[in-house]
Description:
Elements: H1 12-39, H2 43-60, H3 66-86, H4 93-99, H5 103-124
Helix pairs in contact: 1-2, 1-3, 2-3, 2-5, 3-5
Amino acid sequence: MTQPSSEIPETPERKSVGDGLYYLLAVLSGALAGWLNIKVGDLLLTAMTVLGANMLLGFLSPRRPWRWVLVVGAFVPIVEWLAYFFLSQKAERAQIYESFLAFFPGIAGAYGGAVGRNVIANLLGKK
């Protein structure tokens, strides 16, 4: 038998409001990483930006960290595609393919942040 929790239960409205801020942060981080990929052209800087953003998002909201990988990582090729059509910055074929590589550091960051959050919760949790 479980004991009643003294915490306020999360309603669907509370979840959506809290997650909305995280989704906005994910979109902005992905757009920043895509912009860096276009302007600087350094894949390592783009990868570190995606890694840091996903690590932060995985730590702040450890439930289903794969969604941060999808949102942040998807914006790197989307921003490159938008730059191709609207800014007339023609990317080479290799640049287009390498923009999809942003998903790999994103996976490590999101799941690393979620695991780090769970470790801290276990270390500092109530006994």
